[in-house]
Backbone:
């Protein structure tokens, strides 16, 4: 069960000798074409003009400053998750538990908010992010521990821990942290306005969130590409046996990669609490972790592509919000497009493998 | 049923595993198939049993040409194969193994299967409980069950691949009795082995393969052991691998005295200028490895009570056929396996409880045979490998590239510093592997260091290893190439079915002596 | 007593869709393939089953459509993972998300539209038996089918030759290959059949238990089914027990609200996942020599019960689960 | 809805494509059912291309659930359609299903922004959950008027001046529902399928209980303590799989436990549907759905009637006023038109009798409604105690609006969680 074929990293050695544009663009074009074909068929089936739908899906998020800022606020946690997953994918792990790590980060971020609401906001925020990172990392380390010492596949452990984390959030929202006099799944009391992450004017854009995400991406990029630690991480992901022979402490690197991913996902959780929802809700992750997994699967742990793909995915999601209003169709077509892109990317990779090897 | 192959060809990449084989196995007899590692025995057997499809030529059963698209088809045609590690289902019971995917109509019902199982077991003198979980059975019992299963499924030709590895003497006796009985009943048995005594004891005829070709066809037993060894290891074809080794072999084989104790004296092979005086070296180094009463087990092979000491500056060769236990020793020496009992000292410090990282820290390097899967990371370049070996937190890209360039120059590796390792040829990969060994290394354990390399590459590798040895490094290597073992070893340990011979010093080395020991001759009865 | 029988009957009914899904997945995983797309498959199949049944007014066509959807998703999974050798995990995961979104998009016109449902059908005679009657024989056809499915799958897996072959694919496909079984085509077949059962689970939700369709109508059911298969150790009876336990937990969660006013009872629903993790960890513990030694060093009075308990709880997964097949 | 040939072709293509690609199948063809009206597939939302003309007054609505839920959201949607009909020149645009389960990354403010961006000058939000978001949006868009239905920001004095609150006195509807349940019940065990716990839902449960208890004692002649009244809360206004309890299961469990009338307090109709199913399976059960006048259609045979909101008339007045520049920010809590509670042009709250209510009980119910109408019966009269024994309304007193609005607990005699 553990020896899944981890085809996660870019394979520089497989580059085709023929350097024609077709050879380099074949895979992405096949994936894009297949995904668009499927999505178009789905759109046509509900009698919607695909062109209009695509116009809204692709450009909708850039049409007004408000939408653009919404897109940024979605892209920020998404970027953090996808960046974190770059670490675990580099180490050859499917961290399916990223959703739970995000939720636990959000729960942990609530702790200082509830315990020390009197602290100056800046200090409180730092504390929140620190707690969130610690919470996410802890949850990820639990999965890593299960993997390394009890041999539980990180896929199933992560899945189970996701549900446990959402159970915890549910318990807190409906139990000890509920609004006074009510018990609703809609979330805890809203934070006081002064504790919301400061925004740009009337927009919902809190610049701290994307800044943090970009910083994390840069840091991870640097760590994976420039440091020996990152090199060791990739070595473990590519070939654990050989890495071990070359003196890399593989187990440690795996645990560190998981913890790093958990910490970043936890910080994404803190953004959801402080900058997006301003409260803890049961569905605090809002599927951002799963979307992050899609992004990471698509870019195969290559940090260069994380930012553009995360932004594109976020703009699909934000753009799709206008679909019901403008075209009368459900906005989940964004998810169809995102999923289809990854599915056809897998298909294209499989086909090319079959052709070349 | 008679089995015949005509002009059979099978190639794996550039290697011609079976090269235009034409051969006939008569019904009602036990046929030995001999050959050293890589001679093409297994390929031939897998072709006949339908596991592989030939590139050319034909397979005929009782004169009718058979087109086998899989082992199922072969079994329907009456051919069954028992693999060295039986291809059975440990999670099932014996009876379930018998019933699983049995051909339509072969076994009517569960009850019929149970009856058939006990009946066949009784007839063949086997002891297999129908309801015993397979995981609780010994390899020998699992093999017996496989034979029963194949017979129950209608096999009239049985192929056994190294069946006596990992089973007890009593089981071997039972097996042989059963095989004789089966042959007497008109079945054909193909017995693949490299244990000459067993072949001599059991087989009616023997054929010998070497390098994919038939070198001895249907020799009716008994054939003199010496003749078989000569056929297997190629007395007639001298290959100029290393210095005068070829001559040694020929003289050794030609001398009539059986085990010429003096063979080493006139035929000490040497690489001039590199090989120092053996006698002085023998005393010089301190012990790098010391093993006391070490036992360990991997799969069906167990090493028992091994004690030895390997000094700095010594080269120890490990001889033996596949599955005789050499990899276990290599793994013990490098901390990849922990001994069940006994102690291992490295540089005088007890390390038996440590893992591979502790050994590595103590200056022990392991060079695996599977260079790409265990040795290096195919997707990374030589520069990145050197970067991995650095100590600082930040990669010093320039230093790593310098090291890579130096290695490329020193070791004549045909690559750029940024070429992914997987894009290199085998010889270059091996040189890169060697180049990555740190200069202060105390001991190197290599598995098949020159496997798959051409002569020039192999010599280049050995030049490097010998340089290391001059720098005070102890080298242990396992090889299937007797010439290589003789040419470079200060002493050789021969492995046979998990047992280790006393060290043979270079003075005592000869191909004949090694071949005998490898074939199990001289390891005593049982 | 009456309350107990009613409770048991409700448990049997409530677990019906999970039984279909877990039995399908048990088959699939026994053949060595992980179909991780369960959650999406169930949703899409539920939606399409409802849409078809609504428009054709035929429940049978609805169930058939659901089975077809499940089978086709399994076919896609098989093609990508078995033929194109992409990771089963990645493909299954992506399919789970994609089909969830597809069900939301295509199902929009059917949200909360009243539609047909499987009619109640007590079995004459048997239904009036004391005790057993109300528990077993006062349901509808879909639930009877779920009750029959467990012994059927058990029989198929453990009492027939087909089952032996199928399990061989999951334990050691090389051995099956050596016995002449076409490994990849058979795995295709089993995955598709398993997928069809998972699809039927969706139909049982939308045409019976949770009548109709709404957004993410059965969200989470697939992941729960995956967890239960692990909890059940890939053995049909134990897997079924897991389903019934989960259904009982769900009903308890409804009733405990007034008993445990401080505790949100929704939290009970995550219990299966905690159990799954514990079971997975135990599976490996029994193989761990250190633990074996630790158990061996217990006082003899304690040793045997502990040993028995651990070996009873832990059930090893099919040895080749999730691994691509390499010819020997 | 008719299909154009192009659509049918597209459907076929889709079927074929999905066959090859993602495991869909031909059965998806009839995505547009020939049966019941399906507002989602025939959206009334604005044509995206037509910009609002000068004389057109666009108003928007943000709904927490789908517009065809047969309950709360459909009632609001019908109300908005009523405005379009009654106030010439108005046009409705809306976004439904704004909740973390259906639109995980969309917040109320965001949805409101979209509506304003499409030209909405007046925005209605329809859930208590939207209180904070509506206030935020109202502050950000002082030029737009906002109506938060079921909210109390104005009452609590925290509302911006372009925000008004509107709610119906559903307490009366629930009293009637409770009475109908008590009249018809055979076992004397009534179940209330509760959404989440807050002051609104508590006062509605209490009202249903008071109505039931009164009719149980008065018309059935039974002692109050022989009436069982139990609430199970699912945790939200409607089912969110994995987060809330499943209302289908809750309803089934009520029936299994022997409760024979399910009074629904949630936005959707699971209670009615499950009761109908159980009835078909031979059990004697009834249900009282909620919110939407047409709700009984999903289970005629077991429907005792439905207390419903009729938002249209008041919406029309407020929007017409706002358009004319006469917007006032106020907290409104409007009761039924006691002359004819089911008058669709005048009454905010009504009770549509269901087919399952016997004629005899219907007559009794009318008598009960009459007492409420002429003021001779005020069920919020003391002595009434909370669950923990503390006094809600002292003996000889009647509760004022604020006491009722901010109800803190369930009443004594009700089994279920209060979450004070």
Residues:
């Amino acid at each position: 069960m553990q020896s899944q074929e981890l085809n996660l990293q870019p394979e520089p050695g497989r580059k085709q000798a023929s350097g024609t544009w077709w050879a380099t663009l074949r895979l992405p074009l096949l994936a894009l074409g297949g995904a668009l074909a499927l999505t178009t068929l789905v759109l046509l089936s509900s009698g919607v003009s695909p062109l209009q739908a695509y116009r809204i899906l692709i450009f909708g998020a850039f049409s007004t400053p408000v939408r653009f800022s919404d897109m940024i606020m979605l892209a920020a946690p998404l970027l953090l998750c996808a960046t974190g997953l770059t670490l675990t994918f580099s180490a050859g792990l499917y961290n399916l538990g990223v959703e739970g790590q995000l939720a636990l980060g959000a729960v942990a971020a609530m702790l200082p908010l509830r315990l020390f609401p009197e602290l100056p906001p800046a200090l409180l925020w730092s504390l929140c992010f620190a707690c969130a990172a610690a919470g996410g990392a802890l949850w990820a380390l639990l999965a890593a521990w299960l993997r390394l010492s009890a041999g539980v596949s990180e896929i199933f452990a992560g899945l189970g821990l996701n549900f446990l984390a959402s159970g915890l959030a549910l318990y807190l929202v409906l139990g000890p942290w509920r609004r006074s006099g009510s018990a609703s799944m809609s979330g805890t009391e809203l934070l006081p306005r002064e504790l919301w992450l400061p925004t740009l004017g009337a927009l919902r854009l809190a610049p701290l969130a994307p800044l943090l995400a970009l910083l994390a991406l840069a840091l991870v990029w640097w760590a994976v590409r420039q440091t020996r630690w990152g090199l060791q991480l990739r070595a473990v992901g590519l070939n654990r046996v050989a890495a071990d022979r070359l003196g890399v402490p593989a187990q440690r690197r795996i645990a560190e990669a998981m913890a790093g991913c958990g910490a970043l996902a936890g910080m994404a959780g803190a953004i959801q609490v402080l900058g997006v929802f301003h409260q803890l809700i049961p569905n605090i992750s809002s599927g951002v972790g799963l979307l992050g997994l899609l992004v990471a699967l698509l870019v195969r742990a290559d940090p260069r592509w994380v930012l553009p793909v995360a932004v594109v995915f976020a703009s699909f999601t934000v753009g799709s919000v206008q679909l019901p209003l403008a075209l009368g169709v459900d906005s989940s077509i964004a998810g169809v497009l995102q999923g289809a892109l990854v599915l056809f990317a897998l298909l294209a990779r499989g086909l090319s493998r079959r052709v070349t090897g | 049923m008679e089995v015949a192959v005509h002009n059979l060809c099978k190639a794996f990449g550039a290697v011609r595993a079976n090269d235009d084989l034409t051969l006939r196995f008569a019904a009602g007899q036990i046929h030995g198939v001999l050959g050293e590692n890589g001679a093409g025995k297994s390929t031939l057997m897998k072709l006949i049993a339908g596991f592989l499809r030939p590139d050319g030529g034909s397979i005929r059963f009782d004169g009718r040409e058979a087109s086998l698209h899989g082992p199922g088809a072969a079994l329907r045609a009456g051919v069954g194969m028992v693999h060295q590690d039986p291809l059975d289902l440990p999670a099932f019971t014996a009876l379930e193994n018998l019933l699983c995917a049995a051909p339509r109509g072969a076994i009517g019902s569960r009850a019929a299967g149970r009856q058939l199982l006990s009946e066949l077991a009784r007839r063949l003198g086997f002891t297999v409980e129908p309801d015993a979980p397979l995981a609780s059975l010994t390899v020998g019992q699992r093999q017996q069950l496989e034979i029963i299963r194949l017979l129950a499924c209608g096999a009239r030709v049985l192929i056994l691949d190294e069946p006596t590895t990992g089973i007890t003497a009593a089981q071997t006796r039972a097996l042989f009795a059963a095989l004789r009985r089966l042959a007497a009943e008109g079945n054909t048995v193909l017995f693949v082995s490299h244990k000459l005594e067993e072949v001599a004891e059991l087989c009616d005829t023997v054929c010998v393969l070497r390098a994919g070709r038939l070198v001895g066809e249907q020799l009716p037993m008994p054939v003199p052991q010496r003749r078989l060894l000569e056929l297997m290891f190629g007395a007639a074809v001298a290959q100029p691998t290393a210095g005068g080794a070829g001559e040694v072999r020929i003289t050794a084989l030609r001398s009539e005295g059986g085990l010429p104790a003096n063979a080493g004296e006139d035929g000490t092979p040497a690489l001039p200028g590199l090989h120092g005086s053996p006698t002085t070296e023998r005393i010089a180094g301190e012990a790098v490895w010391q093993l006391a009463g070490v036992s360990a087990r991997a799969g069906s092979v167990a090493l028992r009570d091994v004690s030895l000491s390997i000094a700095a500056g010594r080269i120890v060769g490990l001889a033996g056929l596949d599955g005789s236990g050499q990899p276990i020793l290599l793994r013990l020496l490098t901390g990849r396996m922990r001994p069940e009992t006994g102690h291992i000292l490295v540089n005088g410090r007890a390390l038996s409880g440590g893992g591979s990282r502790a050994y590595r820290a103590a200056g022990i390097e392991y060079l695996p045979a599977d260079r790409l899967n265990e040795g290096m990371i195919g997707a990374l370049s030589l520069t990145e490998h050197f970067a991995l070996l650095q100590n600082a937190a930040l990669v010093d890209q320039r230093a790593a590239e310098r090291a890579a360039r130096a290695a490329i120059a020193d070791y004549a590796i045909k690559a750029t510093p940024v070429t992914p390792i997987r894009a290199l040829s085998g010889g270059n990969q091996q040189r890169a592997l060697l180049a990555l060994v740190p200069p202060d290394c105390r001991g190197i354990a290599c598995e098949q260091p020159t496997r798959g390399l051409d002569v020039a590459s192999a010599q280049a590798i050995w030049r490097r290893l010998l340089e290391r040895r001059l720098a005070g490094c102890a080298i242990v290597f396992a090889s299937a190439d007797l010439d290589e073992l003789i040419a470079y070893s200060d002493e050789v340990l021969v492995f046979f079915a998990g047992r280790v011979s006393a060290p043979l010093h270079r003075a005592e080395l000869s191909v004949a002596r090694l071949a005998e020991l490898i074939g199990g001759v001289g390891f005593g009865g049982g | 007593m009456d309350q107990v029988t009613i409770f048991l009957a409700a448990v049997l009914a409530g677990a019906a869709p999970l039984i279909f899904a877990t039995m399908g997945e048990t088959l699939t995983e026994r053949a060595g393939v992980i179909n991780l797309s369960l959650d999406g498959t169930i949703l899409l199949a539920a939606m399409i089953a409802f849409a078809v049944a609504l428009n054709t007014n035929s429940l049978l066509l609805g169930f058939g459509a659901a089975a077809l959807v499940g089978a086709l998703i399994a076919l896609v999974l098989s093609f990508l993972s078995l033929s194109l050798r992409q990771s089963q995990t990645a493909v299954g995961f992506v399919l789970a998300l994609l089909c969830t979104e597809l069900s939301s998009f295509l199902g929009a016109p059917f949200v909360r539209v009243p539609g047909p449902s499987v009619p109640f059908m007590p079995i004459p005679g048997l239904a009036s038996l004391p005790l057993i009657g109300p528990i077993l024989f006062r349901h509808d056809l879909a639930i009877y089918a779920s009750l029959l499915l467990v012994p059927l799958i058990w029989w198929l897996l453990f009492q027939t030759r087909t089952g032996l072959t199928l399990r061989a694919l999951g334990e050691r496909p090389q051995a099956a290959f050596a016995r002449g079984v076409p490994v990849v085509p058979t795995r295709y077949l089993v995955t598709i059949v398993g997928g069809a059962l998972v699809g039927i689970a969706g139909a049982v939700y939308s045409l019976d238990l949770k009548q109709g369709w709404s957004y993410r109508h059965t969200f989470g059911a697939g992941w729960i089914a995956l967890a239960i298969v692990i909890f059940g150790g890939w053995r049909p009876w134990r897997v079924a027990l897991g389903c019934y336990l989960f259904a009982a937990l769900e009903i308890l969660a409804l009733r405990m609200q007034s008993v445990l006013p401080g505790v949100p009872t929704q939290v009970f629903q995550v219990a299966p996942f905690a159990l799954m993790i514990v079971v997975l960890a135990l599976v490996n513990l029994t193989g761990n020599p250190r633990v074996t030694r630790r158990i061996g060093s217990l006082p003899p009075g304690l040793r045997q019960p502990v040993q028995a308990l651990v070996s009873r709880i832990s059930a090893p997964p099919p040895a080749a689960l999730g691994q691509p097949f390499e010819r020997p | 809805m008719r299909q154009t040939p192009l659509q049918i072709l597209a459907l076929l293509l889709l079927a074929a494509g999905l066959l090859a690609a993602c495991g869909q199948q031909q059965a998806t063809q009839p995505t547009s059912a020939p049966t019941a009206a399906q507002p989602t597939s025939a959206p009334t939302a604005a044509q995206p291309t037509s910009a609002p003309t000068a004389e057109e007054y666009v108003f928007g609505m943000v709904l927490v659930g789908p517009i065809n839920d047969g309950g709360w959201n459909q009632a609001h949607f019908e109300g908005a359609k009523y405005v379009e009909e009654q106030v010439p020149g108005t046009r409705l645009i809306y976004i439904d299903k704004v909740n973390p389960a259906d639109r995980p990354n969309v917040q109320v403010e965001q949805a409101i922004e979209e509506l304003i961006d499409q030209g909405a000058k007046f925005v209605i939000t329809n859930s208590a959950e939207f209180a904070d978001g509506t206030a935020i949006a109202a502050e950000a868009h002082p030029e737009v008027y906002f109506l938060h239905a079921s909210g109390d920001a104005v009452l609590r004095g925290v509302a911006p001046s372009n925000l008004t609150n509107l709610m119906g006195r559903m307490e009366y509807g629930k009293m009637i529902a409770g009475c109908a349940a008590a009249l018809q019940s055979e076992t004397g065990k009534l179940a209330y399928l509760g959404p989440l716990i807050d002051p609104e839902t508590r006062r509605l449960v209490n009202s249903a209980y008071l109505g039931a208890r009164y009719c149980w004692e008065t018309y059935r002649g039974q002692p109050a303590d022989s009436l069982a009244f139990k609430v199970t809360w699912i945790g939200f206004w409607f089912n969110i799989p994995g987060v809330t309890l499943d209302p289908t299961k809750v309803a089934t469990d009520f029936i299994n436990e022997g409760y024979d009338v399910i009074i629904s307090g949630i936005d959707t109709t699971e209670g009615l549907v499950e009761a109908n199913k159980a009835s078909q399976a031979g059990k004697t059960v009834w249900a009282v759905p909620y919110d939407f006048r047409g709700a009984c259609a999903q289970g005629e045979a077991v429907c005792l009637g439905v207390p419903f909101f009729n938002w249209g008339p008041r919406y029309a007045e407020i929007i017409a006023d706002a358009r004319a520049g006469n917007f006032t920010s106020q907290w409104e809590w409007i009761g039924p038109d006691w002359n004819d509670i089911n008058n669709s042009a005048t009454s905010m709250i009504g009770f549509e009798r269901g087919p399952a209510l016997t004629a005899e009980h219907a007559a009794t119910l009318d008598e009960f409604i009459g007492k409420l109408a002429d003021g001779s019966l005020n069920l919020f009269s003391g002595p009434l105690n909370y669950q923990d024994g503390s006094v809600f309304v002292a003996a000889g007193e009647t509760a004022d609006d604020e006491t009722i609005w901010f109800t803190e607990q369930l009443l004594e005699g009700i089994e279920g969680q209060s979450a004070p």
Chain A touches chain D through 50 residues (CB under 8 Å). DSSP finds 14 helices and no strands in chain A. Residues 1 and 153 of chain A are 7 Å apart (CA to CA).
